[in-house]
Amino acid sequence: MNINNKIAKTYIFSNKKLTAVGVLGVLLGMSVYIFMNCLMVGFDRTSNMTVFKNTAHIRVYKDDEISKPLIKDSIAPYLIINPKIVPKINTIINPKKILQILKNDENVVIATPQVNTNVFYNNGKSQISGTAIGIIPEEANNMFDIKSTMVEGHLDHLIHNPNGIIIGSGVAEKMNLTTGDNINLTSSKGINRTLKIIGIFKTNNYNIDKIKSYINMPLAQQILKEGNTYITDINVKVADPETAEPIAAHLTELTGYNAESWQKSNETIVAAGRMRKIIISFVSFTILLIAGFGIYNILNMTVSQKINDIAILKAMGFKGNDVVRIFVTQAVSIGVMGVIGGVAMATVVITLLKKVYIGGDIGYFPINYESTKYLQGIIIGLVITFFAGYIPAKKAANVDPVEILRR
Amino acid sequence: MKTVLKTEKIDKYFHDPVEFQVLKDISFEVNRGEFLSMIGKSGSGKSTLLYILSTMDTEYSGQLHIDGQLVTGLPIDSLAEIRNEKIGFVFQFHYLLPEFTCLQNVMIPALKLGKYSEEEIENKAFEKLKILGLEDQALKSANKLSGGQQQRVAIARALINDPCIIMGDEPTGNLDSKNSNIVFDIFQNLTREFGQTIIAVTHDEDFAHRSDRIIEMKDGNILAH
Question: ipTM higher than 0.90?
Answer without folding.
Answer: no
